[in-house]
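Ticket 4471: requesting a sanity check on a complex prediction with flavin-adenine dinucleotide. Repro inputs:
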Amino acid sequence: MTAVPPLGAGALKLTEGGFPATPGVPALDGHGFIPIDVHCRVPGIERVFAAGDAVRWPDPRSGERIRVEHWVVAERQGQTAAKNMLGLRERFDAVPFFWSQHYDVPINYVGYAESWESLQIDGDISRRDCSVRYKKGEQTMALVTISRDVESLKAEFEMEHAAAKPHSG
Ligand SMILES: Cc1cc2nc3c(=O)[nH]c(=O)nc-3n(C[C@H](O)[C@H](O)[C@H](O)COP(=O)(O)OP(=O)(O)OC[C@H]3O[C@@H](n4cnc5c(N)ncnc54)[C@H](O)[C@@H]3O)c2cc1C
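Returned structure tokens:
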């Protein structure tokens, strides 16, 4: 049986440049976060895994490293890391999402778009019945919907099954 000592880092004080270097925490990338590979391993350090707010991971859809502060992302990443500690070699490729309720306006966001080339708006924003696609070329990187839950779920399904882009690790 392998001992697996967990180390929490998500509650480190986050500054504009990310987390400050901390004793016991793996080397940070240029953004102040812990880089991990698709298996939630910290590259270059044998048998060290990381997950949650403190990490940036290779997003299979954009091919870029991303970081998302979200409970479900941290939870799913932790599950993948745990399985891989046991030797399963599962890839972390969950689609990030969040929803928020602003009085009577429910907003769903699925995917991840730090930048985009075009916005495709369908419906009527003022009537609170719309979807907004953040696109790069033909690819939808993220979708925001108001009162269109089914469209949001379909987009999440499509993103989950979209061909993965090559990335560095
Ligand atoms: C105010 C606020 C509101 C939020 N609201 C939402 C929301 O509505 N929905 C949502 O999805 N997400 C929300 N989030 C984000 C969500 O809480 C985080 O994404 C999630 O908790 C990240 O989990 P984590 O395990 O990476 O880090 P954390 O939950 O921060 O866990 C890190 C753990 O490590 C421990 N720790 C720290 N340093 C050490 C150390 N040196 N040794 C041992 N243990 C240590 C800490 O005590 C802590 O228990 C919110 C965050 C904040 C701050």
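Notes from triage: The chain has two helices and eight strands. Leaving this open until the requester confirms.
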